[in-house]
Amino acid sequence: MGKLVIVGTVAFDAIETPFGKTDKILGGAATFIGLSASHFNVDAAAVSVVGGDFPQEYLDLLSNKNIDISGIEIVKEGKTFFWSGRYHNDMNSRDTLVTELNTLADFNPVVPQDYRNAEVVMLGNLHPIVQLSVLEQMEEKPKLVILDTMNFWMDCALDDLHKVINKIDVITINDEEARQLTGEYSLLVAARKIHEMGPKYVVIKKGEHGALLFNNDNVFYAPALPLEEVFDPTGAGDTFAGGFAGYIAKTGDTSFENMKNAVIYGSTLASFCVEKFGTERMQNLTEGEVHKRLLQFKQLTQFEIELA
Amino acid sequence: MGKLVIVGTVAFDAIETPFGKTDKILGGAATFIGLSASHFNVDAAAVSVVGGDFPQEYLDLLSNKNIDISGIEIVKEGKTFFWSGRYHNDMNSRDTLVTELNTLADFNPVVPQDYRNAEVVMLGNLHPIVQLSVLEQMEEKPKLVILDTMNFWMDCALDDLHKVINKIDVITINDEEARQLTGEYSLLVAARKIHEMGPKYVVIKKGEHGALLFNNDNVFYAPALPLEEVFDPTGAGDTFAGGFAGYIAKTGDTSFENMKNAVIYGSTLASFCVEKFGTERMQNLTEGEVHKRLLQFKQLTQFEIELA
């Protein structure tokens, strides 16, 4: 069983969708990644920071999923990172209403000693300098480093972003961000340009249209499961990344063929995440439900054409 | 070998894309459908109308692909249907610059006697009344009737459109049109509503995001091959439909499992269509090229997760 280090926000989210709104609920990239990766029974540790206002029950929730939380710093006198957003009617776009960095503004991640030899590192969306500082703490080169990022850092910290992109193995990025990062409309050409920036593997997330995995000339396309209703997309990308990272950590196999499976697991887990507000659906997801949906994914995508 | 009746426009197109522009070139739904279906060596007949200005070489081109053209009426004193459009930079949207109906305005399709017992009928995009009149000429109920349509008929002939939709087996429609026809954003719910209108099978085309095949609770998702460059999307939807119809006519098998393969063949053929202006790429496409790209499609989509 491989060790997995997860770095990212542990946060409060307040969400408005056409279906309703929430008060401050549990959110954050490391939270969604951790809940998703926990389905693979890997030895995972979350590295993050929260304030004194963060409820013990949320920390217990992560611990109960066997996520080591010794790397989550609690700044007693500080407040927890807070994000609030409102989704538009098509659920594909949203407005940020509030971003309060709070304790995140001075976050210096510390990887617990026991996890500095982890095989897999999942760098959730954060300032690229913070992501870099985690890599520098690793005592040996991890087998696989996965990075998630977003357009915000392309706008305001592009040089730092390029530094961290150059040091990682897999980048997960959405389609519009891949286009922004490379100036290329074709995702095939964009992926090629991102390869040149460092990452051997490029995962482009297309939301309801699925995800693409590139490794030079190899391409794999996992569609998203068509859903009756997307209730709340918050955390879907992180849940995808958590499933991907968890599956790789569990199997220890970084071949392209096995990464295809990691993408399928990521997509499967993300398809649950969007069914309820925040982490609600992920908190109580059973192995049986995941198994059943994987079968649906096979039916959705597999066909039998005999070719010589 | 099954017989296939193809109804649709045979036309002149003039196309502008960011890569260049054409004079009047060969176009039309029946043309693209026919060229695509011709890859399956089925006994196909095109039913259409052109004017005296239509070059014999274009008719010969269809004949040389073993498409029976006795159902293409030539109105000597009339002019051929002409469409001109300009694609935007993203190639996903376009403006129509010119639509001259010409001989199409009074088109009364006549299915050649030899083809009134065809197993498969492909109704390309036309006025729903014209599509209906073709069905009425069939001497026995075809094994499968496939209909393509567009938003234009939803805007100006919705009642007639519903009449023909009620009489067919498979509808191919793009995602925005499926939403317009049903008032539902979720494609899963939209497909269910279209089932209720008549068609047992619903194919929703999502352009660069692939195509979905629905049969009540069964769903299949064929992604589109990621392309370096989309040179000209004109005719891609018709080429998809032609591949779908041709494969069904060849195999004579209308099971859901076989329709999955029909969708894969349709997607494969459409991926060639967009590589050059108009029909240029389809005119010279070889079996070897199709075979190679089908292998690419398998690599793109197939994975091996062992599930009980």
TrEMBL record, chains A, B:
| Ranges for domain Carbohydrate kinase PfkB | 4-280
Does Phosphoprotein show up as a keyword for this record? no
SUPFAM superfamilies xref list: Ribokinase-like (SSF53613)
Keywords tagged on the record: Kinase, Transferase
Which molecular function GO terms apply here?
A: kinase activity
Do the record's keywords include Metal-binding? no
- The protein, known as: PfkB family carbohydrate kinase
